[in-house]
């Protein structure tokens, strides 16, 4: 499985790095999985919402179609200049997500990354969740908001705020490679899985 975590300036660190660590642990334990931190446009560095600076693995090229694309949130609720909201308004990332989803990629979002899925038109009429501060806007966009920590609707997965991205990634591991691997990763990370998964 090819998995891309799509970064942009202003993303929330834990939204991306929590799932990245879970998925890299799965690869180390034998999952057929390659995880990359990618940007929409070529960038040597991405600056996250709390100031973390990352050198991405590369750019998500127009001809690439990862099996899984995971989008972090960040800065939506406080309307930061560099944020998921800015990217939604710019429109390029939502267009890419819509294209990839139409081509068969599974799309996942953590926190207000779900609002980028909404901007892409992917959440209308579908069960989803986002950070509690953006649930009203998600619902206004036609989504069926489900009160769960992780919502799995097959080719569209969403998680609530920030730390729920770890639960989403552990659920993805369980869904693809079994509960034993997911539990082993959770134990190693000393993470207590919490909340419900709607699927």
In short:
By secondary structure, the chain is an alpha/beta fold. The protein is 36% helix and 20% strand.
Please characterize this protein's 3D structure:
The chain has one domain: Class I glutamine amidotransferase (GATase) domain (Rossmann fold, 3-Layer(aba) Sandwich). 36% of the residues lie in helices and 20% in strands. It has seven helices and twelve strands. The protein has helices at 13-28, 84-90, 92-102, 113-119, 135-140, 164-177, 179-188; strands spanning 2-7, 34-39, 46-47, 53-54, 58-59, 68-71, 106-110, 127-128, 144-145, 150-152, 156-159, 197-198. The chain has an eight-stranded mixed beta sheet with strand order 5-2-1-6-7-11-10-12, sandwiched between helices. It has a two-stranded antiparallel sheet with strand order 3-4.
Strand order of the largest sheet: 5-2-1-6-7-11-10-12
Topology-level CATH name = Rossmann fold
- What percent strand? 15-25%
Main sheet? 8 strands, mixed
Overall pLDDT score: 97
Order of helices and strands: EHEEEEEHHEHEHEEEHHE
| CATH hierarchy: architecture | 3-Layer(aba) Sandwich
Low-confidence stretches: none
Write down the overall geometry: globular
What is the helix fraction of residues, given as a range?
25-40%
Structural class: alpha/beta
Radius of gyration: 15 Å
Distance between the termini: 21 Å
Q: In CATH, what is the homologous superfamily? A: Class I glutamine amidotransferase (GATase) domain
Structure annotation, total helices: 7
Name the CATH class.
Alpha Beta
How many β strands by DSSP? 12
Number of domains: 1
């Amino acid at each position: 499985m090819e998995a891309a975590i799509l970064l942009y300036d202003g993303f929330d660190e834990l939204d991306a790095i929590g799932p990245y660590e879970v998925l890299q642990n799965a690869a180390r334990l034998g999952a057929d999985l390659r995880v990359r931190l990618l940007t929409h446009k070529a960038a040597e560095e991405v600056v996250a919402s709390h100031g973390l600076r990352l050198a991405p693995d590369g750019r998500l090229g127009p001809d690439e179609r990862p099996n899984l694309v995971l989008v972090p949130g960040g800065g939506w609720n406080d309307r930061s200049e560099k944020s998921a909201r800015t990217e939604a308004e710019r429109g390029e990332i939502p267009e890419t997500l819509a294209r990839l989803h139409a081509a068969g990629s599974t799309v996942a979002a953590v926190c207000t990354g779900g609002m980028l899925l909404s901007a892409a038109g992917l959440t209308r009429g579908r069960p989803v969740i986002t950070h509690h501060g953006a649930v009203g806007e998600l619902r206004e966009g036609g989504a069926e908001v489900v009160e769960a920590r992780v919502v799995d609707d097959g080719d569209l997965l969403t998680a609530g705020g920030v730390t729920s991205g770890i639960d989403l990634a552990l659920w993805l591991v369980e869904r693809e490679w079994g509960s034993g691997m997911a539990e082993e990763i959770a134990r190693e990370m000393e993470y207590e899985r919490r909340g419900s998964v709607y699927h």
